Amino acid sequence: MANEDIAKGSIPESEPTAPGQGGAMPPAGGEQPGLPTTALAETAANDKVATESEPKPAAGKRAKDSGKSGSDGVDFRTGTLKRLPKGFSLGVLIACWLVTYLLFKFAFKTESLVGIAVVGYLIFLVIMRIVSYQVEGKRGGSDRMAGIVIASAFVIAVVPLISLLWAVVQNAIPAMSYSFLNNSMVGMSAAGAQPGLGHAVVGTLIITGTTALIAIPLGILTAVYLVEYYRGGWFGKVVTFLVDIMTGIPSIVAGLFAAAFVGVIAPGLGHRNGLMGAVALVVLMTPIVVRNTEEMLRIVSDELREASYALGVTKSRTIVKVVLRTALPGIVSGCVIALARVIGESAPLMITASSPDGFNYSLVNGPVMTLPVFVYSMFQRGMMEYAWGGALVLVIIVLVLNLIARIIAKVFAPKTR
């Protein structure tokens, strides 16, 4: 009746009032106003049925699984990733090599170090694959195996270098002395003579120094031309193509070219001298400097150039103060790598600079001895300890050049806050 009276308008409909203000109280049991009681009851009943239908793990099973790790190597009890102990991989590797050694020695009657190393390493990979996946899970095991492969590649790359340095030092120590570093090979057949490689050190410094003075500025300026002035032009593409061809030229061909070139422009200098050797090394070093400098200049962001132009700085000054200064560490490293490559060349210098036994401080007056040619000459004469001594001095010079390059790159590198 009340609803019908309200519909007819005989009883005015009261405005809804907020709870606690004299109006109707909210329904008991947390029911929301306007929602039918039957709908709420049905929803609660459905939730209860769904909850009861879910399978509950047994208490014993929960206790058993709480200490296990999931597929990702997660400890359910602590919520942390389970990892193998430190040094576990190294211990397994040593054990695999030991077992493989015993197997080769007693079963196959051989002690091949290469076979033991390879077979033991393969067994190690299989064991670590199984153990790491069981303990650390799929994700942790994959990470562990990737780390093992990367570390193995590092060792394979470093071991030959260390072996080379050790062999050079070990065989060169008997020949190293002050007289060996200071004397030449003149009069070495006399009784009590102390042969040395001083003339080869002097010749190497003269020829490679001249090469660097010519090739480094020429290569850097060529790279600046290709990157900053003729970027994408047809002439730049031609120069780049020629530089690539020069990079692949055999060193002996560079020596023949230098001998012919110097013989044409200065026929009075003779057939063999230090200048020919320097020209041959310039032909080999310049394309390396060009390609490295070109890559370093392309790395420099165009935003730096545009910011400099926006301040009214000229293009030439932007190249010198911004572009070259930013790329200086990479350029210096590339120049040192190029110099280290040509300082060990022997084939072009055997054609151009020859192999005299005495000192010669002139580039244009007669043959000049260099360290690579000295090593080859001593090997040909059967004087192996002197050949090893020359190799050690050559390695030391290359190391010193690398240290100087790192210092220069650090001093002139852009300062960061």
TrEMBL record:
CDD domains: TM_PBP2
Entry-linked InterPro entries: MetI-like, MetI-like_sf, Phosphate_PstA, Phosphate_transprt_permease
PROSITE patterns attached to this UniProt entry: ABC_TM1
Keywords: Cell membrane, Membrane, Phosphate transport, Transmembrane, Transmembrane helix, Transport
Keyword Transmembrane helix recorded: yes
Region (Disordered): 1-72
Compositional bias per record (Low complexity), positions renumbered to this chain: 16-34
Record membrane topology: Multi-pass membrane protein
Domain ABC transmembrane type-1: 201-405
Cellular localization per UniProt: Cell membrane
Pfam family, one: BPD_transp_1
Any single biological process term in GO: phosphate ion transmembrane transport
Molecular function in Gene Ontology: phosphate transmembrane transporter activity
Transmembrane regions listed in the UniProt entry: 87-107, 113-133, 145-169, 205-227, 239-266, 272-290, 322-343, 363-379, 386-409
GO cellular component, one term: plasma membrane
SUPFAM superfamilies in the record: MetI-like (SSF161098)
Protein function: Part of the binding-protein-dependent transport system for phosphate; probably responsible for the translocation of the substrate across the membrane.
Entry's family note: Belongs to the binding-protein-dependent transport system permease family. CysTW subfamily.
PANTHER family: PHOSPHATE TRANSPORT SYSTEM PERMEASE PROTEIN PSTA
This protein's name: Phosphate transport system permease protein PstA
Organism of provenance: Actinobaculum massiliense ACS-171-V-Col2
